Amino acid sequence: MRRAAIVSPLRTPVGKFLGGLAPLKAEDLAAKIIEAVIVKSGIDPVRIEDIVFAQSYANSEAPCIGRWAALAAGLPLEVAGCQVDRRCGGGLQAIANAAMMVETGAADVVLAGGVESMSNIEYYSTDMRAGARAGTVKLYDRLDRGRERSQPEARFGVISGMIETAENLAREYDISRAAADAFAVQSHHRAAAAWNAGKFDAEIVPVEVPQRKGEPVIVARDEGVRADASIESLSALRSLSPGGTVTAGNASQQNDAAAACLVIAQDKLAELDLEPLAYFRGWAAAGCHPATMGIGPVPAVARLFAKTGLGWGDIDLIEINEAFAVQVLAVMKGWSVEGTERLNVNGSGISLGHPIGATGVRIMTTMLHEMQRRDARIGLESMCIGGGQGIAAVFERP
């Protein structure tokens, strides 16, 4: 079976909710990152056989966003496109799908990516198709509704949302508010230090954002990083549930971003004159109870290690999506991994942000560039998934 190479992974900055990237819809961000990957790699677009793109909050404004964005980016009509959704794990699933296409010979060159514009997630109604005869018509916030409806209530009862699942882990794994706040501060400080050291320069694609009046604004930096975060400032925040552990300061953000890369058959690299940053070595997904969805990386990594023969001693860098600080700390206990020296060394969802469909590709992009700087051999990426899943993958440098 052929090896799948990762080439030219790039990402936009991660915008705050209703922040600098809010004027751009998801399809705009997706088209921009596709264009950037083609320019960076120098590949002839006609060689791209398919576009696999993740989006978790899809709608009919840009259906099948992989194809839509490919057309918007000016790719040849012959380039196909599709959309995948595994919620928080969608971006990594897009890479896995592209890798499997290459490994099995279904395609030689695939562009994989993910996008989310949480600022533009719409309100919707389920009352209007047959016509409301009278009375109030209810509008749902798709952003909140997707969290409330992440599992069948008939089987699992009411789970109010992701915050409840995080508090369940805090109790089960004995994670304190102080520990959660300390981890969140570390995430912000690491992200700020990475920016100050220029570590993101090679992976970031600045985005030009049109304005209603005046010249376009260039967004070139992640907007959620707080270099001034401290234990004092985070401990002053009110918990989101009475007596709880989760606050706005130790949970991931809601964001806008896109990320993408080329996934290419190893035996085509020389012909295309391309150098990979890494090879896709393997992946696995696993389910868990929806009420403790944050623990999903534990069974996913266990399954991945069983399939690949790898163990924790083989892993040089670890990346996890940081849905919540308590979630990461619970997963670390579940993995029996101590210390954070190789975990999220440049920050993650709490500091850099968590643009759902884009996160898996954003994480890989950041991790592969860091592996190159450190001359690291193997990196592990993992994330929890709303509804009770985990996904994980390993990447190996040449």
Description:
This protein is α+β, with helices and mostly antiparallel strands and 398 residues long. The chain has twelve helices and 14 strands. The strands form three sheets. Strands 1, 2, 3, 4, 5, 10, 11, 12, 13 and 14 form a ten-stranded mixed beta sheet that branches. A two-stranded antiparallel sheet has the order 6-7. A hairpin with a 7-residue loop joins strand 8 and strand 9 (217-219). The model has no long low-confidence stretch (mean pLDDT 97).
- SSE order: EEHEHEHEEEHHHHEEHEHEHEHHEE
Total helix count?
12
Which residues sit in consecutive blocks of at least 5 with pLDDT less than 50? none
CA-atom Rg in angstroms: 20 Å
Describe the global form: globular
Q: What percentage of residues falls in helices of 4 or more residues? A: 25-40%
Topology record:
Blueprint: E1 4-11, E2 15-16, H1 26-41, E3 50-54, H2 65-72, E4 80-84, H3 90-103, E5 109-117, E6 123-124, E7 140-141, H4 142-148, H5 153-156, H6 162-172, H7 177-196, E8 207-209, E9 217-219, H8 231-235, E10 255-265, H9 269-272, E11 278-287, H10 297-308, E12 317-320, H11 325-335, H12 356-374, E13 378-385, E14 389-396
Parallel strand pairs: 3-4, 3-5, 12-13
Antiparallel strand pairs: 1-10, 1-11, 2-10, 5-10, 6-7, 8-9, 11-14, 13-14
Helix pairs in contact: 1-2, 3-12
